[in-house]
Amino acid sequence: MMFFDRAMLAMGNILFILGLTLIIGFAKTLAFFARRQKIKGTAAFGGGIMLILLRWTFVGFMVELYGIFVLFGDFFATIAGVVTSVPVVGPYVAVVLDKMGGVARRNAELPV
């Protein structure tokens, strides 16, 4: 029930953006979100935040989730590659990834 609490989602979004800015810097964060190929994801993420603030929490969360997948989709392959090296879970994740088509970095355009 608390998962779609408007105040918690808004705080989480603000802290996510602030944390990203603190980790990679203001200029790189701005450059990442303003990239031409990422503009659809940025618009969806920002629109999701606005919908959450306008009390459409579930719809806003779904729009925001789509924006996150567009913005950080290239990074998920990197995460999957790291998870395969985890001692207990890694072999199982590797089997699942092999059946899905393997781990391949399509686009390494992350700001860090």
Automatic annotation (TrEMBL):
Biological process according to GO: endoplasmic reticulum to Golgi vesicle-mediated transport; retrograde transport, endosome to Golgi
Claim: Transcription is one of the keywords in the record: no
GO cellular component: COPII-coated ER to Golgi transport vesicle; cytosol; endoplasmic reticulum; Golgi cis cisterna; Golgi membrane
Record-given protein name: Got1-like protein
Regions that span the bilayer: 12-33, 45-69, 75-97
Bilayer disposition of the protein: Multi-pass membrane protein
Highest taxon, organism lineage: Eukaryota
Pfam families, per the entry: Got1
PANTHER family, alphabetized: CGI-141-RELATED/LIPASE CONTAINING PROTEIN, GOLGI TRANSPORT PROTEIN 1-RELATED
Subcellular location: Golgi apparatus membrane
Stated family: Belongs to the GOT1 family.
Major localisation: Golgi
Species of the source: Pseudovirgaria hyperparasitica
